[in-house]
Amino acid sequence: MSAETSVPRPRESGVDISDSGLFKGLMSEAEFAFAFFDPEGRFVRANEVFSDVVGVPEERLLGRTPAETLTADLSQLVTHAVQDVTESDCPVTERARVRSAEGDTRHWALSFSPVHDEQGQLQAVALVGADMTESRQTEEDLRRSEERYRSLVEAQSQLVWITSPTGAVVEDAPQWRAITGQGLEEYLVHGWLEAVHPDERRHTEEVWKEALRGRTMFEWNYRVRTRASGFRHFEVRAVPIIRHGRVVEWVGANTDVTPQREAEEMRGRLTDQLGAAALRTARLQGATAMLAEALTVEQVVQVIIDVGRTALAADRSAVALLDLDRAVLKLVNGGGVPEVPGATGEEVPLSHSSVLTMAVNSRRPVFAESPESLKAQLLDAGGDEEVLNGFLATSDERAWVGLPLLAAGRALGALRFSFTRPQKISQEDGVFLEALAGQCALAVERATLFEREHKTAETLQRSLLPDRLPVVKGLELAQRFRSGSRHVQVGGDWYDAFVLQDGRVAAVVGDVMGKGVKAAAGMGRIRNAMRALALTNPPPAAVLGGLDRVFDATEEEEQVTTLAYMVVEPGTGEGTLALAGHPPPVLVSPQGTAVLCDAEPGTPLGWPTTRKQFRFVVPPGHTAVLYSDGLVENRKRGLDAGLSEICSVVTEAPPEVVTSPHMLLDFLVDRMLAGYEQDDDVTALAIHVPAATKSD
Fold first, then answer.
1. In Å, how far are 149, 207, 238, 242 from 219, measured between CA atoms?
2. Model pTM greater than 0.85?
3. Average pLDDT over the chain, rounded to an integer
4. Residue 114: burial class (beta carbons within 10 Å; 0-12, 13-18, 19+)
């Protein structure tokens, strides 16, 4: 709030505030805010504008004081102003800031005046308010504009010069001469153009003369020779001063923009460097992402070749792994090294002088930007000059990069990139290549460990599966096992079939959830325990109950194992079945129809439950198929959809396939996996009861 007291106005008399005609014009039509107060300071009248300003309806104002109706700061201002008018009988002017209903601040000029009756007695105090927001804003904008202009002029150090209407120098410019080193006579005779850089003088003079002829603004930039014999960048702007239609003089201002120009050049260089760094970072991130997905050494090598071609524009890329026992490097991709005299074969002895061996032996990158650089480095490493000359004479390679593959300080091998043109390798490129080699080394180490574990687990898994199925009269058995471990670790799928003491045959398909050696070992324990239990007490419910106890004693709580176990009598196909959280068997008829067993699925092994067994008959001519979930379920197909699909696939099998368990399994596996990426082991076991013949 701010308060201003104006010069007292002459008294107004003979005004009746109850005159309805007066108030209709003043209170309703005017754009000003009006209000009237009695001598005690209570509202008598107020128009709609005033009500909108204070945010209080008129009916709530009448008969009340400002303190009872207005905000604290506004009521204090109005109360004091009315009191001052009442006591002094003189007008009072105030300024107030009021926040509108929309939330913005408005500035108001408020005038409080006494109103007298015909006898001269104070009858009321009149308030007239005018919205001064736009005026205040205009004043503020003008003030800020003036401050900005003054600051801008003071901040710029400009060199001002003046010429005649024809462009001739007529006045001295001491600041200009202090910069350029021109003498007074030289400046007056030859002018400012004499100090412009020779390469830019002619063009500058042409543009200057064009501005003189057209009486248009002269805007240009050029380099100016300084007193120290160097050159600085200036921008010039000159305008004609015109009076009565004639040019009386030209006034020009030169601004030294050398720091800006240098900053722009530096910014350009930094932008280029940052762009190159961002590109290298993106390429490294891309390579890291691809290497993270590569599981085998072969896949890692392919990623390295792709990165060499795309990120480095290398013409050839080679990867060699170290065989420390034999002191040789084994080339994983022989095509990465040209077949020319002096080049190595698939094995490179560490004693041989080459880019690869030098990188491994020194544990440092090797950068050869030209044939001369390569020759010098290899000769220093003890290379044979005659062999080197023969290689360089026949090879189309002209630049080389050798990078050691190091993991925890241990050499795993080396990378070799080559180019058919000389290649400049900057310090930034070197940092990128070393980082790339570090990522490649981690990927190679991980892939090597993966392949080693994969081979061990696969061998273990294969060893735990039966070499062959039993041959039993009145029963035909067939199995299919397709590993899903080409891109993942081996799983815990297994199958088994064996003859019990009473001549019946036990058949089982199980799945130990998980991958790798741990899953394969768990599968072996469960399989052996199941055989022992089945041979002593073969009913499926008893076997699963015994397996629950074994599971609790030997397996971890988080391990999940499912299986389908059945006992069948050869010839008749009479049998019993129990499921431990496993997909139901499918029964295929000689006519090519398929029915899923509706036995209770049960819970996985180790879960507390009462195991149940069900009668399950494989009539003569029929085939029962036990299988793991890898046959019917994958990332794109749910279990329910897979179970429905396997029944549908059976109906498409030719008659000769339906009656042959071996052909049936081939047909089911091929058709169920068609169009899907196999991401799990697939195990299937068929129990076929041959149809009875007339001789039988």
1. 20, 9, 7, 18
2. no
3. 84
4. buried
